């Protein structure tokens, strides 16, 4: 059998087509290279086996031909391609490395003592496995640089009463000089209800977190006064000793990159009903 890599002859191997097939050789070569480098691979070339006559001195063993094949094939490696809103950001060595990076990147905005209910990226982040040339694989530092880049993105601000351009800049988390430098055509005179279309430096990707907070507050007890017309005016007796109640308010707080965005009350529950004081006083 004559063995080829694509159309290039590699050598002759002892045996016939019943004992040796191109599929078996390809499987063996792929398996051995995968074990050697520690990840799955996909050969770039096709291994072929064709019946042929050769002198005894040109015949080699199956192990020898497999070794030659490994030296003469190229391959792609299985990796994880990271996409943000459909845009390819980079390639990491494995799906696990990609997932670990995403969790680590998000963790900088997650407080350890926060009652975190959920978190998400503000853009659609996907990990897709693919076979790529190994020189396409980058380290997580280069992905982090891309994630932390700022880009000018449009935002609309509606002018409120008392607003100034410097005040608007402060509200939007930037400075007056930065805002005017990025938006030289902004009007100098503002009026209430005016819409300002502003280019704002925005992180390429942000992390939105949803946390829950619990606040327990006291419900003060009330006092009910009852009048006994048979008793003197200096008469006073407590007939029921009251007690304060308690209320538990659960609030969901949404933050973007650790900065407050919004909040909403999830539940407002009276956990202990207050009991009123009842006092009897005289009226004579």
Description:
The chain has 4 domains: 2-73, no CATH class; 79-148, no CATH class; 150-203, LysM domain (Membrane-bound Lytic Murein Transglycosylase D, Chain A); 210-282, Resuscitation-promoting factor rpfb fold (Single Sheet), CATH 2.20.230.10. The protein has helices spanning 22-37, 62-72, 95-107, 140-148, 165-171, 176-182, and strands at 2-5, 8-13, 41-43, 47-50, 59-60, 75-84, 87-92, 116-121, 125-132, 150-158, 195-203, 207-219, 223-228, 236-240, 245-256, 259-272, 277-282. It has 284 residues and is α+β, with helices and mostly antiparallel strands. Helix 1 packs across helix 2. The longest helix has 16 residues, at 22-37. The termini are far apart.
Number of domains as seen in the coordinates? 4
CATH domain fold name of the largest domain: Resuscitation-promoting factor rpfb fold
How many strands? 17
Terminal Cα separation, in Å?
125 Å
CATH architecture title of the largest domain: Single Sheet
CATH class of the largest domain: Mainly Beta
Which bin fits the share of residues in helices?
Answer: 10-25%
Strand/helix succession? EEHEEEHEEHEEHEHHEEEEEEE
Low-confidence stretches: none
SSE topology sketch:
Blueprint: E1 2-5, E2 8-13, H1 22-37, E3 41-43, E4 47-50, E5 59-60, H2 62-72, E6 75-84, E7 87-92, H3 95-107, E8 116-121, E9 125-132, H4 140-148, E10 150-158, H5 165-171, H6 176-182, E11 195-203, E12 207-219, E13 223-228, E14 236-240, E15 245-256, E16 259-272, E17 277-282
Helix pairs in contact: 1-2
């Amino acid at each position: 059998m004559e063995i080829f890599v694509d159309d290039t002859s590699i050598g002759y191997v002892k045996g016939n087509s019943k004992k040796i097939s191109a599929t078996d050789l390809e499987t063996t070569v792929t398996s051995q290279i995968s074990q050697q480098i520690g990840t799955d691979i996909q050969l770039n070339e096709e291994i072929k086996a064709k019946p042929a006559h050769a002198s005894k001195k040109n015949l080699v063993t199956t192990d020898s031909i497999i070794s030659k094949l490994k030296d003469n094939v190229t391959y792609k490696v299985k990796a994880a391609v990271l996409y943000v809103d459909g845009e390819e950001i980079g390639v990491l060595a494995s799906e696990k490395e990609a997932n670990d990076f995403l969790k680590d990147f998000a963790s900088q905005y997650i407080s350890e003592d926060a009652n975190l209910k959920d978190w998400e990226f503000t853009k659609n982040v996907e990990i897709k496995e693919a076979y790529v040339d190994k020189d396409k694989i980058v380290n997580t530092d280069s992905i982090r640089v891309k994630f932390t880049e700022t880009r000018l993105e449009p935002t609309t601000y509606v002018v409120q009463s008392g607003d100034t351009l410097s005040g608007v800049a402060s509200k939007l988390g930037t400075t007056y000089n930065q805002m005017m430098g990025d938006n030289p055509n902004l009007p100098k005179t503002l009026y209430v209800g005016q819409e300002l279309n502003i280019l704002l430096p925005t992180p390429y990707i942000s992390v939105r977190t949803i946390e829950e907070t619990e606040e327990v507050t006291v419900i003060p007890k009330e006092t009910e006064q009852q009048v006994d017309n048979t008793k003197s005016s200096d008469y006073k007796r407590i007939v029921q000793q009251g007690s304060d109640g308690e209320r538990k308010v659960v609030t969901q707080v949404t933050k973007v990159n650790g900065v407050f965005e919004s909040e909403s009350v999830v539940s407002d529950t009276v956990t202990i009903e207050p009991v009123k004081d009842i006092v009897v006083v005289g009226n004579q």
